[in-house]
Amino acid sequence: MINKLKKEYLFFRQQALNMRVLLITNMLYALALPVVEIFIGAYVMRNTNNPVMVAYYQLMMYAGIVIASLINGLLLKKCNVKFLYAVGILVSGLSMFGMMTIQSLGFIALGIAGLTLGIASGFFWTNRYLLSLNNTCDNNRNYFFGLESFFFTIASIGVPLLIGVFISRMDGYTIAGIQIDINSAYRIVTIVVILVTLMACLILWKGKFSNPKEKSFLFFHFHILWKKMLFLSSLKGMVQGFLVTTPAILVLQLVGDEGTLGLIQSISGVLTAVLVYVLGRIAQPQDRLKIFLGGMLIFFTGTLCNGILFSSLGVILFVLAKVIFQPLFDLAYFPIMMKTIDTVAVLEKRNEYSYILSHEFGLFLGRVFGLLLFILLAYGISETFALKYALIIAGGLQLLAYPLSKNIINHTNTIEHETAN
After folding, report:
1. CATH code for position 188
2. Are the C-beta atoms of residues 342 and 138 closer than 8 Å to each other?
3. How far is 44 from 53, CA to CA, in rounded Å?
4. Domain-embedded: residue 421
5. Is residue 2 domain-resident?
6. What span, in angstroms and rounded, lies between the C-alpha atoms of 260 and 39?
7. pLDDT in tens, 24-76
8. Which helix (H) or strand (E) holds 179?
9. Nearest by Cα to 93 from 203, 200, 191, 204
10. Is residue 412 a contact partner of residue 339, using CB atoms and an 8 Å limit?
């Protein structure tokens, strides 16, 4: 076992410096990301006791991501991408702390909090895409995203478990004569997140990253291949909008507290993380479609279990399916996206960031559709109906991603072949 681990470490050391720096930075940030993805939703749910308000908060957060993407494109003309990436990492932690200090999460305060955190997340994700795109190639992206997904998955298991236990144990605990409540425990967690983001930024500074040479980034007309990719991004965003908050809502309503939430996700996550790393290490570019389809089928099965059973067992099966689905889907999705950007950027002679920006709009449209679907079902019928069936609808629609991604890959290969000749 030790020899195998040493072999994998030596393989990691063989990668280019910038790629290694990016991976280590993202691995550290992976420790903070579950707080954003899970416990912020649980915090909002606990303080509003309204799933629709959670969806509204999430919608404002996604709007903030799009706003940040536009601002980031302008700043890339003058600021180094490394600096902007570090800003996104740091501000995400600070904005969470700001939200925790709000005394009352009313409609306006919740909207501002979501928008602020979204802007911070936007700086993180768009610059992460740009750095990953420019410092990897199609042949090593399976490994890059496999290793990254491995750590993100481990963190999504371990961090919720540890924080859930911490929050449960700290509630009612007295330190130096001060009684700690759940909200105070959340604030302590956020301080730790800020420290982790600082460490990530220090690692990031060791890399030598350059900005796109072409400064223009805002376009509205694209090649048909990229339009297909934008539709695929909308399908991804549609499900993504649910996955950030719905598991927390379901667990809090049907299962228990945050400690249970962390425990549920730890059941299958470790095996999934190992599977994703192995697939990233050995899978070839032509294997991505199989991984893609497998992940989507697992997720759709999980949504059916939740909708049909709608009990603690149904939630457990859904969350297990979600834990397996997300890294498998991303392992295939991001290399497909970046290969498409590589192709159309050369074809249209444009700044790569213009595609990353439009990709965020595609994700946003999908997220808005998914969240509005949930809100409309919750208000039009009932919250229970929305929690049961909105996920099934989204999971079923997402299955369209398989034939679409297959068409995108074939179209990309055709263009590359024609260009080479």
Report:
1. 1.20.1250.20
2. yes
3. 8
4. no
5. no
6. 12
7. 998 888 887 777 665 566 666 666 667 677 778 778 888 888 899 899 988 98
8. strand 178-179
9. 191
10. yes
Q: Stretch 334-341: mean pLDDT, rounded?
A: 92
DSSP 382: -
Count of other CB atoms within 10 angstroms of residue 96: 27
Residues in the chain: 421
Instruction: Please say if the pLDDT value at position 331 is more than 70.
Output: yes
Neighbours of 183 (CB within 10 A): 15
Other C-beta atoms lying within 10 Å of the C-beta of residue 174: 8
Distance CA 383, CA 45 (A): 13
Give dist(CA 248, CA 61) in Å, integer.
17
| Domain range enclosing 146 | 11-205+221-416
Q: What is the pLDDT of residues 202-213, one digit of tens each?
A: 898 888 888 887
Q: 105-109, 266-270, 369-373, 408-412 — which is least confidently predicted?
A: 266-270
Tens of pLDDT, residue by residue over 83-92, are 888 888 887 7
Q: How many domains does the chain have?
A: 1
* Two tokens, residue 163: 């924080």
Task: Look at phi and psi of residue 49 and say left if phi exceeds 0, alpha if psi is from -120 to 50, else beta.
Answer: left
CA distances from 118 to 96, 124, 335 (A): 10, 10, 24
Give me 309's structure tokens.
Answer: 């059973």
Question: Residue type at 53?
Answer: M
- Distances from the Cα of 127 to the Cαs of 72, 208, 360, 379, in angstroms? 8, 14, 12, 37
> pLDDT for 136-182, tens place per residue?
888 888 899 888 888 887 887 777 777 777 777 766 666 655 666 66
- Dihedral angle computed from the Cα positions of residues 297, 298, 299 and 305, in that order, rounded to the nearest 10 degrees: 110
User: What is the residue whose two structure tokens read 């997904």?
Assistant: 149
In a domain? residue 238: yes
Task: For residue 147, give Cα distances in angstroms to 239, 247, 331.
Answer: 23, 25, 9
Contact in structure between 45 and 261 (CB atoms under 8 Å): no
Whether residue 215 lies inside any domain: the answer is no
Q: Give the residue carrying structure tokens 């910038």.
A: 18
Angle between helices 401-420 and 312-348 (to 10 degrees): 20
Instruction: Specify the pTM.
Output: 0.82
Residue pLDDT, tens place only, 23-38: 999 888 888 777 766 5
